[in-house]
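Budget justification aside, the reviewers requested a transparent look at the raw inputs and outputs of the sequence design task funded under Objective 1. We therefore reproduce one unedited record. The lines immediately below are the structure tokens for a 175-residue chain.
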């Protein structure tokens, strides 16, 4: 999620580390706080891989700041990651939202639709947070009102997402 966020935000415009951290925190900070101890090692990995470069620019104060920007290879890598998401990037809600935040950078509507179809297939599989052996339990089968609440919220969220996915897929396929 962190590397995808870095690539996604830098695809939009060059940023210095502090601004990049603020944007990533706004997108995913409620799930995983983004500290300097995680952000800067990820930036260095991406820089070492040739996906981004840094350039010293004069800041608003006297000290120069390091501005990060994607290389052509970094732009290709972002599009590759968007077009070929791994399993958890489609099944894990937080990873999915990160992927979705940058999916517009994948210029091909057919490729965008392919990613959405993968999420749709995942959501259409019967699932639950609670099971009786191998069988997923429905909310009405639970005595616990709190677990029923979890399933009710999940069902409502999934229903809305399924409707959005189907509408968006239809729009993409109509061109």
């Amino acid at each position: 999620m962190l590397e995808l966020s870095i690539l996604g935000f830098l695809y939009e415009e060059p940023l210095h580390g502090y601004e990049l951290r603020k944007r990533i925190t706004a997108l995913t900070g409620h799930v995983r706080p983004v500290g300097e101890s995680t952000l800067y090692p990820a930036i260095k990995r991406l820089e070492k891989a040739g996906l981004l470069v840094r350039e010293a620019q004069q800041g608003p104060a006297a000290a120069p700041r390091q501005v990060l920007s994607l290389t052509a290879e970094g732009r290709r890598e972002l599009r590759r990651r968007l077009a070929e998401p791994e399993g958890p990037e489609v099944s894990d809600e937080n990873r999915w939202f990160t992927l979705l935040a940058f999916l517009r950078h994948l210029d091909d509507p057919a490729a965008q639709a392919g990613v959405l179809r993968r999420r749709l297939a995942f959501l259409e599989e019967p699932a639950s947070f609670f099971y009786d052996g191998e069988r997923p339990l429905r909310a009405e089968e639970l005595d616990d009102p709190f677990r029923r609440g979890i399933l009710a919220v999940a069902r409502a969220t999934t229903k809305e997402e399924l409707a959005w996915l189907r509408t968006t897929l239809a729009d993409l396929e109509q061109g």
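Residues 113 and 170 are 9 Å apart (CA to CA). The first strand starts at residue 15 and ends at 16. Computational costs for records of this kind are itemized in the attached budget.
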